[in-house]
């Protein structure tokens, strides 16, 4: 018979054994878990290293590809471009496969490292989408480029239409990829990963303007290049050494005949070749100009004294018809920055004994001639340089892909504008940056503002203008609307040690000949309210006007040589607007620095 003491002892020994067994089980489990964590950590570590290696290799390939396609006088080697694109695609696919599995996703929940792993996966997925979207376009482009090389002067106009669909698909993929990368929270991401993400976002943002311009252009390029019938294209040169709202004075024109992809320069004229009629050569609506419509419609140099490019194009077309009896099918406006970009691709040219290249073009074309040449010689030299560059571009059909890529972003900056007399083509153009200033402003909706400049003196001194422009949020008003402040910091680099000839600076309007005098027009979206203007901190009188239903603030600004003038204009934003403002401006000789910031009110 067992005593109660013995039974208690056995119970205690059994309980201790069970506790010991449980402890062993816990230790084994802990060891297994620790082992699993070590293995998982090692696995993740290896994956992270492999991802970094693949990403480093991908960036190196991307740098090589960029070097191949950058503007250059060397022929574009599309076979190398395709080879590098294949390499980028392989590296991108490898990175996606390394990060797209359940273990990686589970590890994203870990403290500290999880946010970096999450950001890495989202970034490489966006990269993969961008690469996959662009790869078919490169293949089609190579096929089209091969057809161009059959004849150095002939463009297969019908073949260009095959690029349209891949361009649209690539653009859509790039937009999605850019949005995905921009949305990645990088606050807790280690710098080694955050920096490549920043670079990826910047690279995608840089190429999007090219696709925004080229995707619609491919839809209509064949017809505009004479695939179905001959076309007459009027090329209009804007000289922004003397500013107009839309760019610069228009005094040089070239007519290009397009027939089945062959482009031929068939005529040119300077402003002096056109008569001065008693009235406007075409209807000029009051709503599309500031000031006198007659001034815009009666004088060739004032064609772009409106931000509405279709109006400018209709005036240019009417002037050319008056001059030649021929009506253009399309009008293309360019400025000297476009000529410089073309020279980056085709190489330097010798014009009238002067070597002109992408670096010296501005000084050679827009500054030096006005100090040394007569009026007629200035005009002739401007025409000769422009003609030589345009001829070189027309003779470089094999470089069309590189030219298109280099010129595409210039439409976003207002340096290239296009209009077609054929309604179905114009409907496509109207959806692109090439439609002109007012069309680009309309795309910005309630967030769109513009600073526009018109020369008041008849001088060519705007070539020395430097501008820093900004559109920034002010205070939120009691009514819940935002106040927005437009600022323009303007300086003049007109040389003080050089006597400026009268022909370069006549000083019309009572201004000193050496001064840069501008009419500044600030356009705001419908529903905005102009509040006032200040120059160097002092309030000044601002004329209130309207253009295309948009409120405008207008005032003159004078900048003396070596001086910097600070201009400020304030607007009350439309209700519910002001958190993402957009600022456009007249294209200047030198690109202006532009900064924007918004605020959410109400």
Automatic annotation (TrEMBL):
Protein name: DUF4012 domain-containing protein
Ranges annotated as spanning the membrane: 29-50
Record keywords, A-Z: Membrane, Transmembrane, Transmembrane helix
Organism superkingdom: Bacteria
InterPro entries per the UniProt record, alphabetical: DUF4012 (IPR025101)
Species the sequence originates in: Microbacterium album
């Amino acid at each position: 018979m067992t005593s109660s003491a013995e039974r208690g002892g056995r119970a205690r020994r059994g309980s201790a054994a069970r506790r010991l067994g449980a402890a062993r089980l816990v230790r084994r489990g802990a060891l297994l878990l620790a082992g699993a964590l070590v293995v998982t950590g090692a696995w993740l570590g290896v994956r992270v290293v492999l991802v970094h290696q693949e990403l480093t290799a991908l960036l190196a390939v991307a740098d090589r590809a960029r070097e191949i396609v950058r503007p250059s006088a060397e022929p574009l080697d599309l076979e190398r471009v395709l080879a590098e694109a294949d390499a980028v695609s392989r590296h991108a696919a490898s990175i996606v496969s390394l990060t797209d599995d359940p273990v990686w996703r589970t590890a994203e929940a870990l403290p500290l490292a999880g946010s970096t792993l999450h950001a890495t996966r989202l970034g490489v997925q966006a990269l993969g989408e961008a690469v996959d979207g662009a790869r078919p376009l490169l293949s089609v482009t190579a096929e089209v480029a091969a057809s161009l090389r059959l004849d150095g002067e002939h463009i297969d106009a019908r073949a260009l239409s095959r690029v349209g669909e891949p361009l649209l698909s690539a653009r859509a993929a790039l937009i999605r990829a850019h949005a995905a990368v921009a949305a990645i929270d990088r606050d807790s991401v280690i710098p080694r990963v955050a920096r490549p993400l920043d670079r990826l976002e910047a690279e995608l943002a840089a190429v999007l303007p090219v696709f925004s311009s080229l995707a619609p252009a491919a839809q209509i390029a064949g017809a505009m290049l004479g695939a179905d019938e001959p076309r007459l294209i009027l090329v209009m040169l804007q000289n922004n050494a003397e500013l107009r709202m839309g760019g610069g004075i228009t005094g040089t024109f070239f007519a290009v005949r397009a027939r089945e992809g062959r482009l031929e320069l068939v005529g040119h004229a300077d402003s002096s070749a056109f008569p001065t009629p008693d009235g406007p050569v075409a209807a000029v609506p009051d709503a599309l100009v500031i000031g006198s419509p007659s001034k815009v419609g009666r004088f060739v140099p004032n064609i772009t004294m409106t931000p509405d490019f279709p109006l400018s194009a209709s005036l240019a077309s009417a002037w050319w018809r008056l001059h030649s009896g021929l009506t253009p099918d399309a009008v293309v406006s360019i400025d000297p920055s476009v000529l410089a970009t073309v020279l980056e691709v085709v190489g330097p040219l010798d014009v009238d004994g002067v070597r002109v290249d992408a670096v010296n073009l501005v000084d050679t074309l827009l500054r030096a001639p006005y100090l040394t040449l007569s009026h007629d010689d200035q005009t002739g030299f401007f025409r000769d340089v422009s003609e030589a560059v345009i001829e070189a571009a027309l003779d470089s059909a094999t470089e069309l892909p590189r030219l298109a890529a280099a010129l595409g972003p210039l439409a976003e900056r207002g340096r290239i504008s296009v209009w077609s007399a054929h309604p179905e083509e114009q409907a496509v153009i109207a959806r692109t940056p090439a439609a002109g200033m007012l069309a680009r402003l309309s795309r910005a909706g309630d967030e769109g503002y513009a600073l526009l400049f018109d020369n008041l003196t008849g001088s060519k001194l705007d070539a020395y203008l430097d501008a820093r422009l900004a559109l920034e949020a002010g205070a939120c008003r009691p009514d819940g609307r935002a106040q927005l402040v437009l600022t323009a910091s303007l300086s003049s680099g007109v040389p003080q040690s050089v006597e400026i000839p009268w022909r370069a600076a006549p000083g019309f309007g009572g201004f000193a000949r050496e001064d840069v005098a501008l009419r500044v027009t600030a356009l705001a979206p419908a529903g905005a309210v102009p509040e006032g203007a200040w120059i160097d901190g002092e309030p000044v009188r601002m004329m209130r006007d309207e253009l295309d239903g948009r409120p405008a603030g207008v005032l003159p600004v004078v900048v003396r040589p070596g001086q910097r003038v600070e201009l400020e204009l304030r607007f009350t934003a439309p209700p519910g607007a002001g958190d993402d403002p957009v600022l456009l401006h007249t294209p200047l000789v030198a690109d202006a620095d532009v900064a924007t910031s918004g605020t959410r009110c109400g």
